[in-house]
Amino acid sequence: MPEVDPTQLAEALTRIADALERLSPPTRPPVDLGQADAFLWHAESGRLAPVPVVSRVELSLLVGIDRQAKTLLENTRRFAAGLPANNALLWGARGMGKSSLVKAAHATVNAETAGGLALVEIQRDDIASLPALLDILRGQSRCCLILVDDLSFDAEDSSYKSLKAVLDGGIEGRPPNVLFYATSNRRHLLSRDMIENERSTAINPGEAVEEKVSLSDRFGLWLGFHACDQPTYFAMVDAYARYFDLDVTPDSLHAEAKEWSMIRGSRSGRVAWQFIQDLAGRLGKNTAQ
Question: Distance of CA 271 to CAs 68, 230, 234, 256, 277, Å?
Fold first, then answer.
């Protein structure tokens, strides 16, 4: 056997060690949920980024969804108190305050529990990384509310299985300090075309469709949001105008708000907020909260 050059051997071992170092996953930084009250989940780097100031609307300004607000607030309070609570699906018309209600409920309960509740937002495209996020949150002393906005699944999208495992609990079970809230325009999270496609191509159509449609059934709490009528739309505008002390007569306010909604072709909380932003800007008022 030829004699091995110690220098060459050391260099070879160094190269091997460097290669293994590059292949190994990066060390996950320690998680400090005390940094902020809200966080964004970055799936690629596997870290939680603190959000110093959450973009939200006061709960009192969410007009026309009193029943939904009361139900979600009670559910969130129970969770923050360590009592049983349900994962929630907020579904329905666009712009009617679904995600705004989640953020407002979080802020309200967090104020009541001295910062005991953290809000963690995950992007819809990162649903497959939910198990990794739960691994980080599991065992944390702080209760964590996970929010995914505008949730739906398209054809050939299998990431719903990760969500299903979270809602079902899987073999490990959902961490007791984690609750899941989702918003969607679809009650069943899937389009009718996608359901029909599953039925036509599956070996057992009934079971294939049931597996996907039943995903929404795994949310213990369903809250429906529907398009608002004109009186409710005016009530939204009135509430914003009072809150921001906008100097405009009720008749003028309603006339301008009606014209704004006709131009937009819809009435909703989002349309009311956009109108108020325009009006406040014209009046020289600041609406930053």
Answer: 20, 12, 11, 12, 10
